[in-house]
């Protein structure tokens, strides 16, 4: 399965220090049960310290109802988690994944900023995107899910800092204007987002489209921008609008074919497929593209998962590289 958690496996491999770090970062000691650790985001889930040490004991998380929070059963069934030395049951990896879900659904959204704008992205993914854009130097980025405008503003800032990228364009699409999203999603943190339209970088690089990202109208605007691209230019597509799997699949059908060979389709927040169960989240849509049949590949292109893009310890996204 999709494995964005290899660094956690490596962290805990071959040393007690990794186990201790995983324990300190992702668990709380339960005062009533000194041999049991309770995860802060699953308060009724007791994890035996013997299990955390990798000793041969029953896997209590499988049978404890409280451990079903954040789609525990689905994580196990999907093969998303992979055990390793020092973490034979993938317990630390699951804690890492759940912490990422918890952060994505709560404080990361409004506390992470770029030059005063709510960017609503984990810092490690911002770094991954920065490296990807610098390496590919795409002339067009198509982003669905403008949100507060932070991601588009972040990319515009990067293009401004690069050489020979004055003609780069970012088309960002959302059903709501960024100012309304700022008020709704991050109340009290809207000062900079409200003035983005007047920012020189925003005006130079960004085209904001208020529409359903899967609509014909939005697709026509994107096609207009594609036609203006210099021959041989790279195009990157990032999907971060509605995270229902069926909607993400419609976006894939609309925009995947625009991604140039060697460039990337970023399906954001695939970890939210585990946030509640059952739920048709973005992970299934991304995997459907990777495993597409020949007919779909001729239409959309051939994509492979590239786990090397996000090498900063954790990602909640799936980075798909087009190879044909």
Automatic annotation (TrEMBL):
Molecular function in Gene Ontology: methyltransferase activity
- What processes does the entry annotate via GO biological process terms? lipid biosynthetic process; methylation
* Superkingdom of this protein's organism: Eukaryota
Q: A Pfam family matched by this chain, by name?
A: RMNT_CmcI
Q: Which UniProt keywords apply?
A: Methyltransferase, Transferase
Which InterPro entries does the annotation name? RNMT_CmcI (IPR007072), SAM-dependent_MTases_sf (IPR029063)
Q: Name one GO cellular component term.
A: plasma membrane
Mind telling me which SUPFAM superfamilies this protein's record contains?
A: S-adenosyl-L-methionine-dependent methyltransferases
Name the chain's protein.
Uncharacterized protein
């Amino acid at each position: 399965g999709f494995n964005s958690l290899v660094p956690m496996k490596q962290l805990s491999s071959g040393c007690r220090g990794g186990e201790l770090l995983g324990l300190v970062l992702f668990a709380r000691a339960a005062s009533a049960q000194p041999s049991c650790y309770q995860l802060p985001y699953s308060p009724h889930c007791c994890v035996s310290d013997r299990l955390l040490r990798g000793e041969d004991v029953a896997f209590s998380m499988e049978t404890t109802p409280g451990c079903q929070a954040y789609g525990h059963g689905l994580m196990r069934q999907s093969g998303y988690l992979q055990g390793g030395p020092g973490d034979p049951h993938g317990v630390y990896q699951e804690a890492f994944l759940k912490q990422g879900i918890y952060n994505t659904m709560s404080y990361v959204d409004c506390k992470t900023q770029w030059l005063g704008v709510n960017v609503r992205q984990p810092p490690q993914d911002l770094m991954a995107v920065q490296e990807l854009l610098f390496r590919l130097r795409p002339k067009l980025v198509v982003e669905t899910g403008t949100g507060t405008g932070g991601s588009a503003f972040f990319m515009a800032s990067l293009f401004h800092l690069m050489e020979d990228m004055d003609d780069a364009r970012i088309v960002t699409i959302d059903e709501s204007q960024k100012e309304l999203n700022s008020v709704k999603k991050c109340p009290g943190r809207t000062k900079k987002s409200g003035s983005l339209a007047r920012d020189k970088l925003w005006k130079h690089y960004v085209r904001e489209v208020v529409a359903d990202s899967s609509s014909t109208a939005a697709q026509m605007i994107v096609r207009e921008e594609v036609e203006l691209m210099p021959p041989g230019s790279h195009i990157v597509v990032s999907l971060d609008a509605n995270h229902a799997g069926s909607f993400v699949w419609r976006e894939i059908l609309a925009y995947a074919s625009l991604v140039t060979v060697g460039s990337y389709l970023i399906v954001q927040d695939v970890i939210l497929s585990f946030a509640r169960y059952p739920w048709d989240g973005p992970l299934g849509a991304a995997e459907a593209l990777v495993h597409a049949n020949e007919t779909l590949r001729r239409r959309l292109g051939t994509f492979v998962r590239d786990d090397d893009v996000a090498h900063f310890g954790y990602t909640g996204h799936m980075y798909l590289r087009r190879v044909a």
